[in-house]
Amino acid sequence: MYDDLRNKIWELAEPIALSEGMELIHVECLKMHTRWVFRLFLDKEGGVTLDDCTTISNQLGDILDIHDLSRGPYTLEVSSPGLDRPVSRDQDFVRFRGAKVKIKTHVKIDGMKNFQGRLVDFTEEGCGKVVQVEVSGKIFKIPKDEIAKANLFEEETVILE
Prior knowledge:
By secondary structure, the chain is α+β, with helices and mostly antiparallel strands. The chain is 26% helix and 42% strand. The chain has helices spanning 2-19, 50-67, 90-95, and strands at 23-31, 36-43, 74-79, 100-109, 112-125, 128-135, 138-143, 147-152. The strands form two sheets. The chain has a five-stranded antiparallel sheet. A three-stranded mixed sheet has the order 1-2-3. Strand 5 (112-125) and strand 6 form a beta hairpin. The mean pLDDT is 91.
C-alpha cells in the first residue's frame, strides 16, 4: 500500500514540480497514529527556496484533497533535500557516483543491513539493478530492490582548538 500511495503522489506531484522549474527527487509516506505524513523533496539549479516549497505545497495540497488518496487527514511536508539528500532514483545513483552514502537494506547482505561508504557504481546485471558501495576497502553489491533507504552524507568536521 505504501508503494502504491507513494507512486500515486509522485505521479501527481512531478508535473507540478516540473512546471515550476524544479525536480521531484523523493517522496515518503509515513502512517502516524491519526494521519498520514507525505514528505516531498525538491531540487533545482541554485537551490530550493521557502517560496518554492510553499508554491508546490499549495498546488499539490489542493490536488491531494481532490483525489483523497489518504482517505482522511494528512500532513504535507515539502522541502529541499539538504546535506543528507535521499538517493532513490536510478539517475541519482549514477549522478552521485564517488559520493559518500548511507544505505539501509530490507534484508542482510553479507551479514549487514547498514552500509556507510563511497558509492562506486550503479549497474544493470542479470539479477536487476545493482548499487556498488565501498565500505572499508571492500566492495558490496546491493540489489536496488533491497534498498530500504539511501542518503548522501557528510562526515562531521572536528575542529581542534
